[in-house]
Amino acid sequence: MLPRAAVLLPHAAVLLNGPGQRGGVALKRFEILGPVRAFDGVQELDLGPTKQRAVLAVLLLNANKPVSTTQIIDSVWQDDPPENGANVVQKYIAGLRRVLEPERSPRTPGQLLTFTPAGYVLTVPGGGLDADEFHERVRRSRAEWLDGRLAPAAAEMRSALALWRAEALAGLSGPVFDSARDRLTEARASALEAWAEIELEQGGHATLVPELARLVAEYPLREQLRYVQMLALYRSGRQAEALAAYRDARAYLSDEFGVEPGERLQQLHQRILRSDPALAPAEDPSIVVMAPASPPIPAVALGSVPVSPPWAPPPPYLAHRPPPRPSSAQGWMVAAKIGAVALPVLSLGTLTWMVFLTYAVHRRSKLLGLVSAGYLLLAVTGCVIADLTTEESESSGWFGFAMFAMMVATLGGSVHLALLSFVMPSRARTDPHHIVQIEQRARRQQALQLASQYPAVARELNIGRPDLPRVFDDGGLIDINAAPVEVLAGLPGMTSQLAQRIVAERQFRGGFTSIDDLVLRGAIPIDLANALREHAVALR
């Protein structure tokens, strides 16, 4: 595996000897596919404080176009602009000019960062911004792909992805930066899908499998990645694992979002079940031949490319997802809701409390539990009074109260359930904290699956190590074989003494093989082990 620098050499050559050079002097180049950075040739420039970097980021997002002072203020400070905002912007612009054009005298107009009647303009030559270079390389790769030249297409796509160092515009917040970050992250995910498809067409299914496991864990909602993963597993002779990958996808989408996998994924599942001969890799050797006119391009594995995590907030993945199609699971859900609304009428109010108790358990709502108890009291009161009332006393107030209680339990319960089932959203749809919990649990499950199947990849991604730089969102998972004492002590139910015991045990007797091994070796009690299964992993 070649280092990432091998991929970046052609890029550096273009910047220093191609369009990025005039008269033998290297021009400035900028990076936003990570923290905002600027370079003079190969030397990184000190861009100063965070706000000054943010001003530069706004100019880079509008490179070669005028940006007004108001636009800069709104982008950098949002709803809390500073007093004399125009003067503050001028100060940061002056600071950027000193950094980007140190040879310019104070009275001389800038050549790189200029002021026009429409606003400030940052001149960025072709190849001078890594995001533009990323899009250009992706475009060239797709053109090669359409022409059937798979080897150069794959190499070009790998070189495009190698430009990513971390989260785009890392460290900058605000609607403008968040929107740009979402667009760039979506472009990266799309490029990863294209890269995987190209490699699959070249016959690289066996070497793709570990990388696809990581990518599916990173982008669990991208069904195209799951499609390529299933096909790569099947072509590698791992049909059972391909079917298991589909079951994992279906369980994830159904449990977390109530939808079924897309039609294309379902069709692939059926074809794998039938062992469709058309799924076999192409036998035409021309698909793996390099373009004869092109020089050899270093084949850098994507594993050497820095990986950007699914940055907060997670909803960008959901925001770009098309509305789900009606599914059989949704049909059964509607039928169950209709049955729940009808049950109070069919049972004359005696089972209304049971339906509310079911909702209370499902939604984990204490309030619905109290409502269930109230309907149970109404039903019991009405039935007891009606049973004790004789024919002579049917005209009394007690009999009327019993009838009223049963009517409330019947009609009132039915209307209440109709509102609860079809109008009032569940807590999972309205409580942001609960939504975050669902996302975190889903990411932990993805990370646990990745760790069980590909522990080497999991260690490379620092899964379970929140004390190390994060390259993958594992949902807060903790590796009991590597995490330090202070991190272990943060696990649910864990004390400092138990955390120290775990560290001492693994130092003297080696790492643990599983969570159960913690109990067998006397490190923690069994009830704590059960509580840790969702939050801890034992990587070997």
From TrEMBL:
It comes from the Bacteria. It comes from Phytohabitans aurantiacus. Gene3D superfamilies: AF1531-like domain, Tetratricopeptide repeat domain, Winged helix-like DNA-binding domain superfamily/Winged helix DNA-binding domain. PROSITE patterns: OMPR_PHOB (PS51755). Residues 17-124 form the OmpR/PhoB-type domain. This is OmpR/PhoB-type domain-containing protein. Coiled coil: none annotated. The chain crosses the membrane at residues 332-360, 367-386, 398-423. Belongs to the AfsR/DnrI/RedD regulatory family. SUPFAM superfamilies: C-terminal effector domain of the bipartite response regulators, RuvA domain 2-like, TPR-like. Pfam families: BTAD, HHH_3, Trans_reg_C. Keywords: DNA-binding, Membrane, Transcription, Transcription regulation, Transmembrane, Transmembrane helix. Residues 17-124 bind DNA. InterPro entries: AfsR-DnrI-RedD_regulator (IPR051677), BTAD (IPR005158), OmpR/PhoB-type_DNA-bd (IPR001867), RuvA_2-like (IPR010994), Sig_transdc_resp-reg_C-effctor (IPR016032), TPR-like_helical_dom_sf (IPR011990), WH-like_DNA-bd_sf (IPR036388).
